[in-house]
Design goal:
about 150 residues, mainly alpha, 4 helices, 2 strands
């Protein structure tokens, strides 16, 4: 639309230059000779002005539409960036939480926690033997392999 508006403006300006540079009312255009009287000259000027206004309108509406599209694209990019930042922050928070949980499981065991201790005692009382959960078992190097 901007391109078409620019073409119309250039045509109107070219017609104006043609009229102002000729001394007579006889115009030669593309091999044709035009000789206009006063009414025809007025109508040609009105048509030229209308073409100029239409071209300017097309230029301005095309520029507004382009600016609106750019603004929309900029807003969409900002929203996507904000969404990405929130997701990354959530990911970092989940990673921190996972590390804390992992560190709590890997911490040196000085005593069995109360819930596990109660379960182990309950199992030992009923079965007559003491069982240790797999994740609480301390294994020396190679001793686990020798049991199998």
């Amino acid at each position: 639309m901007i391109f078409l508006g620019l073409i119309l403006v250039l045509l109107a300006v070219g017609a104006g230059v043609l009229v102002f540079t000729e001394e007579s009312s006889r115009y030669i255009l593309f091999g044709y000779t035009f000789e206009l009287n006063q009414v025809e000259m007025f109508l040609a000027g009105a048509v030229t002005a209308a073409v100029l206004l239409a071209g300017l309108w097309m230029l301005s509406s095309g520029a507004r539409r382009t600016a609106k599209q750019r603004r929309s694209l900029r807003d969409q990019r900002a929203e996507a960036s904000s969404r990405m930042a929130r997701l990354e922050e959530e990911k970092r928070e989940l990673e921190r939480r996972l590390e804390r949980e992992h560190a709590a499981k890997q911490a040196p065991v000085k005593g069995v926690p109360a819930q596990r201790e109660h379960t182990a005692q309950h199992t030992a009382e009923h079965t007559g033997r003491h069982s240790v959960p797999e994740d609480d078992r301390l294994v020396a190097r190679g001793s686990e392999d020798s049991r199998r």
